[in-house]
């Protein structure tokens, strides 16, 4: 089974065909096909191809399953004995994609 390491949204992911993962928000409709062309590494059995920095001609195709927002993260800044407390919340947007193929 072949695998690849792709880069999207400033993060790197190790993917195989059939994997479902959440990446940073992509500008694509649900059900649309997307291609990741920043493939850093492709492995198949004992053979590993490492790019410098990317593998030439390699792409990973995926379909967009859904868009959403992650659970709320609470940020609290507190100074004891100083009458200071600051609260903030954050929900990160994401796109859930399913890997459909690795072309190396």
TrEMBL record:
Family statement: Belongs to the bacterial ribosomal protein bL21 family.
Q: Which UniProt keywords apply?
A: Ribonucleoprotein, Ribosomal protein, RNA-binding, rRNA-binding
Question: What species was this sequence derived from?
Answer: Dyella flava
Keyword field contains Ribosomal protein: yes
Against Pfam families, the record matches this protein to: Ribosomal_L21p
Q: How does it assemble?
A: Part of the 50S ribosomal subunit. Contacts protein L20.
What this protein is reported to do is described as: This protein binds to 23S rRNA in the presence of protein L20.
GO cellular component terms attached to this protein's record: ribosome
InterPro entries named in the record: bL21-like, bL21-like_sf, Ribosomal_bL21, Ribosomal_bL21_CS
Name by which UniProt lists this protein: Large ribosomal subunit protein bL21
At the top level, the lineage of the source is Bacteria
């Amino acid at each position: 089974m072949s695998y690849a390491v792709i880069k999207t949204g400033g993060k790197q992911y190790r993917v195989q065909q059939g994997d479902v993962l959440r990446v940073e928000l992509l500008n694509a409709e649900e059900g649309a096909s997307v291609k990741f062309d920043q493939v850093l590494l492709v492995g198949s059995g004992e053979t590993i191809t490492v790019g410098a920095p990317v593998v030439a001609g390699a792409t990973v195709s995926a379909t967009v399953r859904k868009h959403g927002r992650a659970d709320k993260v609470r940020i609290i800044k507190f100074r004891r004995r100083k009458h200071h407390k600051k609260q903030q919340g954050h929900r990160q947007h994401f796109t859930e994609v399913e890997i459909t193929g690795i072309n190396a």
